Write the structure tokens for this entry.
Amino acid sequence: MALGVLLLILPLVPFIGVNTSGAFLSVRLGPISFQPGELAKIAFIIFFAGYLTSRREALAVVGRKVIGIRIPPARELGPIVFIWLASLGVLVLQRDLGTSLLYFGLFLVLLYVATGRVFYVLVGLVMFVAGALIASRLMSYVGNRIAAWLDPLNEANYEAIGGSYQLVQSMFGLAHGGIFGTGLGGGLPTIVPLAESDFIISAIGEELGLAGLFALLSLYMVLVARALRIANTHADDFSKLLAVGLGFVIALQCFIVIGGVLRVVPLTGLTTPLLAAGGSSLVANWIIIALLLRLSDTLPKPGTVSE
Amino acid sequence: MTPEIKRVANFILLMFLSLFVAASAMQVVNADSLSNDPRNQRAVYEGL
């Protein structure tokens, strides 16, 4: 936990923190720069899995019943409140909506899997939406993002600084690609700003078309499905939670960033796992895959009798 | 935990389905109106 928090706040440290287009995400040490948030992601999953394994009995305890809903004892809400504050802190201090949503969603899912209580998910969602709404009122960049998401073709949003220009260019690109795409090298994805990182999906959608995009999404689904399969077959709680966490973080990250480009959710700056430019993200995602392989290796081999 | 994992799996499926639907909407259903937008520079490049 301490490691995760430390990695997360590292970009805020003066002199080594780098401000890239409004978000404090990377750290620069001499010639090397990296995004500690990506590695913090893994530290958090391991911490959550360990914490919830030891606390799941207590968290699942049924407390008083109010209007037909069983409310757990108040002190058990502590961890949710803490994670909620932490992710709002990321939102406010590092100005990064995507990371904030990623950590919070991850925590809620692991809490749900560990305890089986829908109550936590409902409370968590209400808290996050409330927090995000307040943030969008208080901080213009969140509000701009939401306006650009709801009506990108609107002239005012299109012209605004930090408005929907990028998103609209990416929509033109995707529309140009159509079903089968323009072919590799046949499109003009360079018109879209940041086509190598945040908008890599738009470049793929233009050149490989809807068919290529579907194939790519299916590959992600296979990866996530394997993670959940490992979680399902494992016997001990910690491994189960770890595998669910690792699988879900890939799924959620895909959803947030690809959904942002495709206008399912407001656009936020996350990297597309294993695809977009950014060394730290690539390394972090390969670490996730390595952990999954390791978990998979400890499963009893099919056909052999386990001890 | 197994039923919860299944429910999470269904939720993930739903997230990906929404991406499939959104991609289809943007690349096929709305493709013509987007291509004819006056701000779309791609039409200019196509004409060359």
